[in-house]
Hints:
single chain, alpha/beta, 7 helices, 5 strands
Amino acid sequence: MMLILVCGLPGTGKTTVAKRIAMRTKSSLLSTDVIRRQLFKKPAYDQKEKEMVYGELFSRAERSLKNGKNVLVDGTFYMKELRDKVKKIAEKTGSEFRIVEVVCGERQIRRRLEKRNKACSISDADYCVYMKIKEQFEPIVEEHFTINTSNDIGRQIEKFLKII
């Protein structure tokens, strides 16, 4: 089994990348945005809510891995502590673990987030949220694969799939 963590700042294209990798690896896709909407009709985005969302994601991921399914988790995972919890789930279940960081140029992120606000999106993150999380994002020091969505993601995803 494999546990893939797709993380990065809001607006980078994490969910697009996550869906494509999940499909190719036949992984159950677990998204913090989707779980938040399932748990809260009107999200407050406070610390208690964030802990509940990530806690539910961790429980679902572990359960799926124990049931023999590959799992891909999609969220900002801006804190090392959160990424470490995912890694521990992989270790506990004897699963391979990979991290994919999704990045993009800031100008393009701003355009995406402005466009997202006009459309119906599962994520509420806007440019202010992006800036706040950018300040708090703890660098990924572990071995990981980076996908830059400013460029063609198809080739980058293929390269990632070859190394796993």
